[in-house]
Amino acid sequence: MATETIGESASTVTPAGLAALKSHYRSGVDDLSAEFFAPCLREARLYRRAAGYFSSTALLTWMEALPRLVQGDDVQVLLIAAPELNPQDKAVLRELAADERRAEYRRMVVERILEEIVVLAENPADDGARARIFAWLVANGRLDIRFAFATHIEAPGIFHEKMGVFDFADEARVAFTGSANETLGGHRLNYESIDVYRSWVVGDAERVGTKVAQFDEAWENEAEGLDVERPGAETVARLRARAPRKLPRGRGSRSREGSEDRRWRHQEEAVEAFLKKGAGVLEMATGTGKTRTTLKILQRLIDSGELKGAVVATDGTDLLDQWAAELDGWTLRSKRPWLVYRQYERHREMGEFALGTDGGILVISRAQLPKALRRIPRGAMGNMVVVHDEVHGLGVPSLVGSLKGRHRPFGWRLGLSATPERSYDEDGNRFILVEVGPTVYEFPLEAAIARGVLSEFDYAPLPYELTDGDRKRISGVYARRAARKREGDPMSNEEFWNELAKVYKTAEMKPVVFAKYLEDHADLLRDCIIFVETKEYGNGLLEALHGHTTRYRTYYAEDDREHLEEFARREIDCLVTCHRISQGIDLRSLRTVVLFASARSKLETIQRIGRCLRVDPDSPAKRALVVDFVRDAGPDSGGDQIPSADEERREWLASLSRVRRTEDA
Question: What pairing do the DSSP bridges indicate for beta strands 339-344 and 347-348?
Fold first, then answer.
């Protein structure tokens, strides 16, 4: 029950549950989360917050700290945030002289952040679940957000005011100012402090009123030196369109993969197999939940009190972003949430992690791992796990030299891959075996399809022949090999086969054969990814595609990620790409993969067809299609072994396409 507070400036009552609030909180002495934010959020009816800068993922992480937004039905948050500006944004804003041009660019930055959340809302992974919750909050009026830009100086930095006001029943209010954010770091791990003013305390009412006035002035875009942008109506409409009618009870997007669904029991089997050994590789088909299995391993080790920190290493920004998002979601759901650090691309958080590894997970590009392992205290590694996703990437020669012997201090060493073995590289394979360990569990494609974890698929091998131009290029490869041998610098078998393979991957007749096939099968271009060897070869296919659809894009190294995001939200039907999305990207609506380029080893093929074999909850009857190009061995094969590789792949994929789901798998 609320109690009256006597005092000349106190005009309200103390809300129930807030009598213990103090005037100041500081990390190390106080638990800001449990002692201040949690009780205030539990009682508040309105929360006005100005909270520094945000990226799209930071915004979703911040939102996770406000459980009453989802659980209650009578609380609203008004948020003023500053968009995270990259160096290009800052440079453009400095160069634009006209106020209207600056304002236009600021609006574009705001739309970009929210558009990223719109895209994430289409993703079935954990970051997608958070994005859909965000969309639901906006659609239902629980969250209203505006973005602030400092304009009071010629070369503005960021809007960095950090203050908030909680409104409670009976006109009681609490205002605070200080450095803490509603994040795990702001509440518990960073060194933060806040000053608190309570409307029912003598002398505080005026300060509370000042903070309310300051916030409302900024909210209405009336504050000097500040420009506050509202999100555009079209972007808000797209968010609302992606909002679920009802919020899911669980936050995990893959709740179907729990213990109640026997199809996913392989994950628990893999957990037990790894924990029994403590080091080794989980060889699990693409789409069967290697990430989710890893999270279960982390949770088991944390629950046992053994694990204090973790390092997750892999290659490629897309895959690293996916890991960071999955780990963010997991830490927020965990009973003992940890802090996720990033060290790749523009993220530079390795130093912070190395200073205090307890309760931290570092997501890092493999190329930067040697530097990180030099900075992490060796004594701390005994209570840490190192995880290598797509572990075959660990065996590249540059890492063999720089990481030799560096994994041994870790208490646990985990490798993940659908196909961990490196082709033509016994040294790399031995290195992975020594540093990480042998395969301790297998769940191959055949088992996954039979159990219904992956989709059944049809296989369409398209026959093609070599042209005179192709044969001339093959002769050139043989000529170069002979010349190198004469010069005392012989080609290795791997180098020779790779050069030959490139000729077959870029065979001149394949586009002609594909164009003919499309005349009767143009519908395959919907929800389709076409893998090619080179950008030039891929661009040669565009004319054939244009005859059937304009809803296609390329996605090469220099192309904007927006192309992938457009594909993910199904605004385009078809992507033409090389290698960027062979690994780790979860696009469950994808139905067709076209393999203009296929490696002799199964590694790349498994990763690529795995993109379309993921089951789609929105399409239970989904049946995938793999289109391949195969040349039969004949008198012109030249003994180069490549035609036999085509035949081996055809036999293997044809066999896989005959696997059917069985009840007892």
Answer: antiparallel
d(CA 473, CA 318): 35
**pLDDT, tens digit, 9 for 90 and up, residues 214-224:** 999 999 988 88
Strand boundaries in 491-589, DSSP class E: 528-531, 552-555, 574-577
Residue 186 has pLDDT above 50, yes or no: no
What amino acid is encoded at 163 in this protein? M
Encoded tokens for 522: 């143009």
Q: What is the pLDDT of residues 8-52, one digit of tens each?
A: 445 557 776 788 899 998 866 776 766 787 788 778 889 898 876
Which residues are registered as beta bridge partners of 442? Answer: 283
Q: ∠144-148-152 over CA atoms, to 5°?
A: 155
**Highest-confidence range of 136-140, 474-478, 629-633, by mean pLDDT?**
474-478
List pLDDT tens digits, range 489-503: 999 887 888 898 899
Mean pLDDT of all residues in 173-187: 66
Distances (CA, A) of 86 to 106, 324, 466: 12, 19, 49
Sheet holding 339-344, edge to edge: 347-348, 339-344, 360-365, 309-314, 384-389, 412-417, 279-284, 439-443
Residue 193 bridge partners (DSSP): 26
Name every residue whose Cβ is closer than 8 Å to that of residue 383 and which is 6 or more positions away in sequence.
306, 307, 308, 309, 411
- DSSP H or E run through 13: strand 13-14
Give the chain's mean pLDDT.
Answer: 81
Please say if the pLDDT value at position 374 is more than 80: yes
Centre a 10 Å sphere on the Cβ of residue 546 and count the other Cβ atoms it contains.
Answer: 10
Q: How many helices (H) and strands (E) does the chain have?
A: 26, 24
Contacts (Cβ under 8 Å, ≥6 apart) of 379? none
What is the rounded CA–CA span in Å between residue 376 and residue 357? Answer: 8
Range list of H helices, 278-425? 290-303, 317-333, 350-355, 369-375, 397-403
List the 226-229 sheet strands across, edge first: 24-26, 193-198, 173-178, 162-167, 46-54, 76-83, 143-150, 226-229
Residue 559 has pLDDT above 60, yes or no: yes
Helix or strand or coil: residue 424? coil
Token pair belonging to 410: 């870790």
Q: CA torsion sign, 283 to 287 to 291 to 296?
A: negative
- Threshold 0.85, pTM exceeds: no
